[in-house]
Write a structure and sequence with these properties.
This protein is of the alpha+beta class. The chain contains 3 helices and 6 strands, in the order ααββαββββ. α1 runs antiparallel to α2 and α2 runs antiparallel to α3. The model has no long low-confidence stretch (mean pLDDT 95).
Length: 122
């Protein structure tokens, strides 16, 4: 299960790097899914799609410290540290991230995604 969900997270981040995030998240999110973002906003599925159509792409990213919390065979939470980079001169965006997945008709769907920024270290 960890490998499956981690693969989905990588697919999501890759879509944010190649500007196809609106399509990816529009497909994978549940109809009532939400994203709780680092800037303090909660976006429903349509707001996620709309915002990603306008978002600048990330240059690269990495995922570390991944942990899986299994709630049942069809429900799980993936928690990790994400680092994403846009321009060479911009500092990395670093956050603790959690994704709540539920399986519908054999396919994993994203019900909740949350970012908690990690303060910059001096």
């Amino acid at each position: 299960m960890l490998d499956e969900l981690l693969d989905l997270e990588h697919q999501g981040w890759k879509s944010l790097c190649n500007s196809t995030g609106a399509d990816f998240y529009g497909q994978i999110m549940t109809s009532d899914g939400v994203m709780v973002l680092a800037h303090g906003q909660v976006f429903d599925r349509q707001a996620v799609i709309d915002s990603l159509n306008e978002a600048p792409p990330w240059r690269t990213y990495d995922i570390t410290d991944e942990r899986l919390i299994v709630l049942s065979d069809d429900h799980a939470i993936l928690v990790y540290t994400g680092r994403a980079y846009r321009d060479d001169d911009e500092p990395a965006f670093i956050a603790l991230m959690s994704s709540v997945y539920t399986r519908h008709d054999g396919a994993w769907r994203l019900a909740l995604y949350q970012q908690t920024p990690v303060p910059a270290q001096p």
